[in-house]
Amino acid sequence: MTLESLQYPRPMRHCRSLHSNPCGIAQANHPLTPRQMHDKLPPGITLIQADDFKTWLVDISVVDSNPLYLNETYRLKFAFSPQYPIEPPEVTFVRDANHPIPWHPHIYSNGIICLDLLDRSGWSPVHNVESVCVSLQSMLSSNSKKERPEGDENFVRYNTQRPRDINFVFHDDTV
């Protein structure tokens, strides 16, 4: 393993400051271009849209034979702050005509995901889009319960916070 493979942020030589950052940490430090990433993704992960370093769409599917998710493809939306990869991206499942929100005890029906990796306290700059997708594939693959989180209906109805600002309590790693 080399230092380059750890994907630590490189110096921001072309940016003025974090407050007037025209290129953003995200753009300056993205480990791969969208094209390079598309060619190197593991099975079950497809980069759909990556026109800029603000929002990407990625499709994932579970590659094992878990009957809960067999033949399903799910769409993820990655929203990057200018501080990425120091801060985690905001990642949610997106529902459209071809992509449902997966049923899982840690995925709310509005697409918000309760996963410590996506929380500021669980995030590390060595993570990237691929590692998040693989973690979500693994989370789905190991699930045996087709259910929503407890309190899903009230959470979806009354939550006004962005996913990155929600303070989840991470206590259940059984699903």
CATH fold-level label? Ubiquitin Conjugating Enzyme
* Structural class label: alpha+beta
Distance between the amino and carboxyl termini: 31 Å
Radius of gyration: 17 Å
Strand percentage, roughly? 5-15%
**How does CATH name the architecture?**
Roll
Provide the helix percentage: 10-25%
Count of runs of 4 or more consecutive helical residues: 4
**DSSP, total strands:** 4
Strand order of the largest sheet: 1-2-3-4
The shape, in one word, is globular
Number of domains: 1
Helix and strand pattern = HHEEEEHH
CATH superfamily: Ubiquitin Conjugating Enzyme
What is the CATH class?
Alpha Beta
Largest β sheet strand count, sense and barrel closure: 4 strands, antiparallel
Query: Spans of 5+ residues with little confidence (pLDDT < 50)?
Result: 1-23
- Mean pLDDT level: 81
Keywords:
175 residues, alpha+beta, Ubiquitin Conjugating Enzyme, 4-stranded antiparallel sheet, 4 helices, 4 strands, globular, disordered N terminus
